[in-house]
Structure formats: structure tokens, C-alpha cells
């Protein structure tokens, strides 16, 4: 694409002028958006390397993940709860006699797991 | 291959081997550009440093998944930055909506105490013009101007074709030119 444009520029002076104008805009924009000292990455580098050195592992990492991104975990928990409720409903609708007691016991287990 | 890209590719290979000094080299190559890009794209520019840190931490943890056949290191890094900025802005909007964060104050971009009012006004106008661009045009023009990426690198970073990037750039420049001329 660049080669195409370069050969076109030789034959078409207007295109060449456009390209120069585009480059000038990009240059102006880059110059305008630069602030003094923003090329200094020493602090950034130090922060990243410090974080790598102090990276939490295992349970600490999981806790940090849950606290910083609670929504996916909450949705996963709600999904599991829904699955349990659905399974319980389907099983209880056909339950009679001893199996009903077994399902009640199963319900207790689910209750314990779900924290209710 | 461009010497900068060759150095970045070597740094990536070293990172896969677990060399932390290679990450520092990568930050030296692309840290400033990525931070500048984030500062322009984020709704809250003060988060730019955090996003830049996150980009390089992700690059470290996912270094093994980098595939040179799919694009330059710069494209890969900027793609991470583009996605992180989108996530941060989305989260920021939600946090402001529920009142956790207050609306971001316009950033004080004073280039220095001695800087003229004209320069600051021009900067504010340009930033407003960039913010008014559609997201893809804004991403493309900032990757070009601030990240100093080539068309091919931008295409890989935005997961599109070089032709589409050219179109985005042409439209973005035209919109900026029109808006800034109107303001003048």
C-alpha cells in the first residue's frame, strides 16, 4: 500500500501534497499531545517491576480478583444457585415416599453449600 | 525489520524465558507511547499510568502467547492497551452512574506555568475535537500520531485491514481539520 502510494505520488502532485498535509497533521498532533517529561518511563518501569516482585499468589490472588471483579464471580454463584433450584424443583415434582425424604436431605446439603 | 521492532521481538523472546530486564527494555521502547495513548483515550486521564502498568503486566504474563506471525510486538501491546482502555471507560461510566466516582474533572494540561493561553486553548480544542470523533477513528488517529505506529501496525492492533485503517485516518483527519478550522 505504501509502495503504491509512493509511485502514485510521483505521477500525481496533488496526491503528494495530500500525503504531506496528512503527515503534517499527524506531526502537529503528536507534538501538541506530548507533555514535558512524558518520555520518562523510569517510574513506570519501576512500578511494573515492583508489582511483578510483589505479585500475590494462591488464595491472596483469588481474593484480590474477587474484590476487583466481583460481577463475574457473583454471576457464577447465581448461576450455580439457579441450577440447584431448577434441579430441586424437577426432582421434587416427581418425588413420593422415601425418595421425598432423600430429596429433603439433598436439599439440606445444597442449603449448606449455598450458605442458606 | 525496523531496529526498534527487532529489539522488541528479542525482548519478547527473553520475557518468555523469564528475564525481567527484557520487560524493562520493552517499557523503555513503548511505555511512553502507550501511556500517552491511554491519557488521550481514557475518560479519566489520571488512570493512564495504571493502564500502562497493566498493559506491561499482561504482556509479561502472556508473553508466551505472543505470535510474531500475527503482527509486530507494538501491535500486540497496543491491542492490549486499546482493550484495557475500553474496559476502563466502560467501568468508569458504570462507576460514575452509580455514584462511586465523581465526574472526572477536565485535566489540567498546562504544559508549564509559562505556557501561553493560546497553546492551552489550542490543546483543549484539539482534545475536544479528538474526543468528538467516532471511537474507531479516534483510536486510529491516536495510534498513528501518539503511538507513532505504521498503517500495518495499526491494522493489526485494531484487528482490521490496512485499507480500513487508511479510511479511518482520512476521515479522522478531515473531521479534525474541519472542526479546528471552524474554531479558528
From TrEMBL, chain A:
Looking at the record's lineage, which domain of life comes first? Bacteria
User: Which named protein is this?
Assistant: Uncharacterized protein
Species name for this entry? Celeribacter persicus
TrEMBL record, chain B:
**Domain of life where this protein originates:** Bacteria
Q: Which residues form the RNA polymerase sigma-70 region domain?
A: 26-93
UniProt keyword Chaperone present: no
Q: Which GO terms describe its biological process?
A: DNA-templated transcription initiation
A GO molecular-function annotation: sigma factor activity
**What NCBIfam families does the record point to?**
sigma70-ECF (TIGR02937)
- Name the protein family: Belongs to the sigma-70 factor family. ECF subfamily.
Report what the protein is called. RNA polymerase sigma factor
Amino acid at each position: 500500500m505504501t509502495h503504491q502510494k509512493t509511485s502514485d505520488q510521483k505521477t500525481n502532485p496533488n496526491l503528494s501534497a495530500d500525503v504531506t498535509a496528512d503527515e503534517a497533521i499527524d506531526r502537529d498532533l503528536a507534538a501538541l499531545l506530548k507533555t514535558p517529561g512524558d518520555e520518562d518511563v523510569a517510574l513506570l518501569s519501576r512500578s511494573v517491576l515492583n508489582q511483578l516482585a510483589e505479585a500475590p499468589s494462591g488464595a491472596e490472588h483469588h481474593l484480590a480478583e474477587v474484590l476487583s471483579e466481583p460481577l463475574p464471580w457473583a454471576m457464577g454463584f447465581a448461576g450455580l444457585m439457579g441450577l440447584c433450584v431448577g434441579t430441586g424443583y424437577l426432582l421434587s415434582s416427581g418425588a413420593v415416599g422415601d425418595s421425598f425424604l432423600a430429596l429433603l436431605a439433598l436439599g439440606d446439603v445444597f442449603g449448606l453449600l449455598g450458605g442458606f | 525489520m525496523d531496529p526498534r521492532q527487532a529489539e522488541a521481538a528479542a525482548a519478547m523472546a527473553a520475557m518468555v524465558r523469564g528475564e525481567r530486564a527484557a520487560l524493562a527494555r520493552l517499557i523503555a521502547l513503548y511505555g511512553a507511547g502507550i501511556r500517552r495513548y491511554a491519557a488521550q483515550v481514557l475518560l479519566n486521564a489520571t488512570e493512564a499510568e495504571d493502564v500502562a502498568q497493566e498493559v506491561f503486566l499482561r504482556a509479561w504474563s502472556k508473553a508466551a502467547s505472543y505470535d510474531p506471525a500475527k503482527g509486530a510486538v507494538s501491535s500486540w501491546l497496543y491491542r492490549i492497551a486499546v482493550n484495557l482502555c475500553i474496559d476502563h471507560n466502560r467501568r468508569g461510566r458504570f462507576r460514575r452512574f452509580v455514584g462511586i466516582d465523581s465526574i472526572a474533572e477536565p485535566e489540567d494540561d498546562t504544559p508549564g506555568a509559562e505556557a501561553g493561553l493560546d497553546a492551552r486553548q489550542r490543546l483543549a480544542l484539539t482534545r475536544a475535537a479528538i474526543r468528538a470523533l467516532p471511537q474507531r477513528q479516534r483510536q486510529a488517529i491516536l495510534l498513528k500520531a501518539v503511538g507513532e505506529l505504521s498503517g500495518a501496525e495499526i491494522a493489526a492492533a485494531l484487528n482490521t485491514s490496512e485499507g480500513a485503517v487508511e479510511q479511518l485516518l482520512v476521515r479522522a483527519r478531515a473531521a479534525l481539520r474541519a472542526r479546528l478550522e471552524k474554531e479558528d
